Amino acid sequence: MPRVTVENRAATVSGAWDFEVELRSDPATTEARTAVLDKPGFGQAFTDHMVLASWTSDLGWHDQKVTAYAPLRVSPAAAVLHYAQEIFEGLKVFRHEDGSVWAFRPEVNAARFSRSAQRLALPEVPQEDFVAALRALVTVDEVWVPPAGSGETSLYLRPYMIATEAALSVRPAREVLFGVIASPAGPYFNTGPKPVSIWLSTTSIRATPGGTGAAKCGGNYAASLAALAEAVANGCDQVVYLDAVERRWIEESGSMNVFFVYSDGRIVTPELSGSILEGVTRASVLELAEDLGHKVEERRISADEWRDGVRSGDITEAFASGTAAVITPIGRLAWAEGDLTIGDHSVDHGVGPVTASLRASLLDLQYGRVPDPRGWLTRLA
Ligand SMILES: *Cc1c(COP(=O)(O)O)cnc(C)c1O
């Protein structure tokens, strides 16, 4: 991979926001970094630097910088710690064969971050500055992007925003911090995608009409953990939630959107109801599925249609989509009174052919192995 000196890389950082670059004096040694890149895991190890930017109601955004990755100092009275005024994003960057580094649809994450900010009464980050922040960090920490040809590896970026104002009154905070951290990510499944089992929760609800389900905020995740524990206690890996009103319609999993493949090749995913998180992977799968000749439907689908379809053979595959695991086959559905196996588990470790081909087309695009006619990739380094 092309090597650039740290000084050169620092000098190339640009964007509408002006990032001051404070390079750390004690970056990880080559050995330590190589050890991480050889076996990255997910969300365990972080790169040498991070992005920070401050916002106050008086000054707006200021103090944008790339600085040493380190613990934050926040007041114990910071609003985020008490009232969960927080949002985040997650996206991956990929190294291509020629050494270049690309983000997948970062402008879509930027737009979603703005919508999440509005819902949580946080200030918006201008969308080009959001992308500039990602570029600033990736430019400085480029050596942390796993090499091309090392399998499904990437650098996972985690932008976030927290209310830092020390004030216990309940109102939108007047002091806020925006940050980006980066973590090398290995293949989510070490030995190829493995079907997960899903617990259909009939007691917990993830999101309600008018609630925060369509925003990517930490509170949604906090509220999902008890149901996840229930799923694990019932031998499952993930939860799928039903709608809050009729408790009948499939919404999504705690961190992934869901899809169903029918025997005639149709692909169905729950329509965005206002309480479903609009996944970048979901939107991309819908377009790629059409390229592959599938008819796609965004509509309501009930838990009964899922169960009946699996029993009759009308539904042949199910999968979940999200940045971290890309596309995850769903092999089993369980609920309080029963369970069902989905698809033909004798084929290719239980990964159905449609799931496998969608997964391959998305990965081929992300790693630059096929043309990118829609311009979904943005070069960062
Ligand atoms: C992040 C997330 C997803 C997946 O979104 P991607 O943009 O595809 O990563 C799905 N559901 C929920 C609840 C999420 O938070």
TrEMBL record:
UniProt keyword terms in alphabetical order: Amino-acid biosynthesis, Aminotransferase, Branched-chain amino acid biosynthesis, Pyridoxal phosphate, Transferase
Classification via InterPro entries: Aminotrans_IV, Aminotrans_IV_CS, Aminotransferase-like, B_amino_transII, BCAT-like_C, BCAT-like_N, BCAT_family
Biological pathway: Amino-acid biosynthesis; L-isoleucine biosynthesis; L-isoleucine from 2-oxobutanoate: step 4/4; Amino-acid biosynthesis; L-leucine biosynthesis; L-leucine from 3-methyl-2-oxobutanoate: step 4/4; Amino-acid biosynthesis; L-valine biosynthesis; L-valine from pyruvate: step 4/4
Enzyme class, spelled out: transferase
Molecular function per GO: transaminase activity
Catalytic activity: L-valine + 2-oxoglutarate = 3-methyl-2-oxobutanoate + L-glutamate; L-leucine + 2-oxoglutarate = 4-methyl-2-oxopentanoate + L-glutamate; L-isoleucine + 2-oxoglutarate = (S)-3-methyl-2-oxopentanoate + L-glutamate
Name of the protein described by the UniProt record: Branched-chain-amino-acid aminotransferase
PROSITE patterns in UniProt: AA_TRANSFER_CLASS_4 (PS00770)
Family named by the database record: Belongs to the class-IV pyridoxal-phosphate-dependent aminotransferase family.
CDD domains reported in the protein's UniProt record: BCAT_beta_family
Enzyme Commission numbers on file: 2.6.1.42
Cross-referenced SUPFAM superfamilies: D-aminoacid aminotransferase-like PLP-dependent enzymes
NCBIfam families xrefs: ilvE_II, PRK13357.1
Cofactor(s) in the UniProt record: pyridoxal 5'-phosphate
